[in-house]
Amino acid sequence: NAGVMQNPRHLVRRRGQEARLRCSPMKGHSHVYWYRQLPEEGLKFMVYLQKENIIDESGMPKERFSAEFPKEGPSILRIQQVVRGDSAAYFCASSFGTGLSEQYFGPGTRLTVT
Amino acid sequence: AQKITQTQPGMFVQEKEAVTLDCTYDTSDPSYGLFWYKQPSSGEMIFLIYQGSYDQQNATEGRYSLNFQKARKSANLVISASQLGDSAMYFCAMREGRGGSNYKLTFGKGTLLTVNP
Q1: Closest by Cα among A114, A108, A101 to A31
Q2: According to the model, what pLDDT value does residue A6 have?
Q3: What is the pLDDT of chain B when averaged over all its residues?
Q4: A interface toward B at CB cutoff 8 Å?
Q5: Is B33 on the interface with A (CB under 8 A)?
Q6: Dist. CA A108–CA A88, nearest whole Å
Q7: Virtual CA dihedral for B30, B34, B112, A113, nearest 10 degrees?
Q8: Per-residue pLDDT for A1 more than 60?
Q9: How far is CA B97 from CA A7, B32, B55, in A?
Q10: Which residues, including other chains, have CB under 8 Å from residue B15's CB and lie 6 or more apart?
Q11: A3-62 pLDDT, tens per residue?
């Protein structure tokens, strides 16, 4: 049973480019969460999605960031016009249910903006 | 106010000794869960142990145990018989609430543990 998969594991973008981060949840999981880890910091919640719905995006920057979880395919975190401050590790987690269901983390995508 | 406080940026321990990593939390919600994760240098987040606010006994998982002191709002991680492979960053995290936004994990800033041979 494959765990949460994220790709790419490492992504380098120049300032102004777009970054697309993909997350495939564990089989049977329909709840996806994105977290961001800035250097020297703990993870911070960004967004919670269920299939085709954004449930809570309170942790997402208002501009340039968007997320989706389509009916088919992986969840995508999209960052437009990246800036140096977007350099971070982005983790996806998935769960079977909501509330206190266990969240399983993927290996993360390390984004470097040059 | 910080919801999760880890006051030890770095800790050193000799191989085979026990070590305690501190975590204090702040919540007014009677229902919450406390988690510890390990992040080795490779970067992935590995779940170690969970303690629910209503659990009567301290959680244990192999060499990991959680020293839960509810009145003091502390949830310290104890690693017994440290191994070189335990060298990593350790994060304490909390989820609050029975409903609503109880899916959000709030993390501390972490403690970097180094195990010396």
Answers
A1: A101
A2: 96
A3: 93
A4: 31, 33, 35, 40-45, 48, 56, 58-59, 89, 91, 93, 95, 98-108, 110
A5: yes
A6: 10
A7: -90
A8: no
A9: 32, 6, 15
A10: B82, B83, B84, B115, B116, B117
A11: 899 999 999 999 999 999 999 999 989 999 999 999 888 899 999 999 899 999 999 999
